[in-house]
Please model this.
Amino acid sequence: MAGRLTASFRKRHSPAISISADFTLESGDGRITVLFGPSGSGKTTILRCLAGLDRPQDGFIRCDDATWFDAVAGVHVPPQRRHLGYVSQEYGLFPHLTVAQNISFGMPARAGSVADRIDRILQRVHLDGMADRVPGRLSGGERQRVALARVLAREPKVILLDEPLAALDLPLRDPMRRELREFLRSIDVPSVLVTHDRVDALTIGDRMAVLSGGGIRQIGPVDEVFSRPIDVAVAASVGVETVVPGEVVEHADGLATVRVGSASVRAAGDAVGGGASRAVFVCIRAEDVVVETAAHDGLSARNRWSGRVVGVQHEGAVVRVAIECGFALSALLTRPAYDELRLASGSPVTAVVKATAVHLIPR
Model:
């Protein structure tokens, strides 16, 4: 079932916006690629083009030796002939058919008992004994597994998933993230998952393609893209809370010193090349900020800025704290940590950030 998907195409997303895509996906290493970006960025448009549900204006889409789309040659293979699996947000199950009938629908004909094949697939997605149920008698998580089982039954070369967790209640999403990743990594098929949810991307994906401004701006390992965005647009898309302009004033001992407002920021490594001075954006994630109410002597590789709290926002189990420390900095605290510090607007604090957690983007 292994496959290799190569695509380079452009599709008009709206009268004023075109979406472009250029990438290669390969199986063999359990690779799951996440298409990530805000609503309206074109993620689903790209997925629909890969599936054959939309037709690009130009370019090509190839899977192994088969050409699915080629604008120059006039080739456009319909969805049912693309040998892929597609899971939509609503799962697309037939409500009047049983689980077994849903799975067997579109199953390729070959020797062997269909019932035996369905039983093996149900075991693989942990739905043993549910072959005779209808979708209305299943939980949201079970319906998702049926949709995945139906995809698996088609023996696809590529699996496409469009926000597959969006319809689930929040308590179900955490276990289903883990189950979905385990399932996708257990089969030798490249997978493309569309999401705008950061936790989905971090939990499920092996690599990530970020859409912004009508195209894929960065593609790479999920952790690397989140922690090292290549430009401000990607930083905004992946939710880096603090992005401020600065000037590199010194490189010494593996540290770059950056002037940001009235503060000095140290970043590990020669992140923006040589030179005594260079314009950059300083990127700091809120979860990398430690907040203290008393100053302590720190290591040279740590940044320590004295400041004051200028805003507090409660977000469920965490609290987002806005700090003015020579520049505007956002910190994310657990509720117990926030309660222990007894912070309020105007409270004096010290913000601590490791130099290795500071990312610089050239301006």
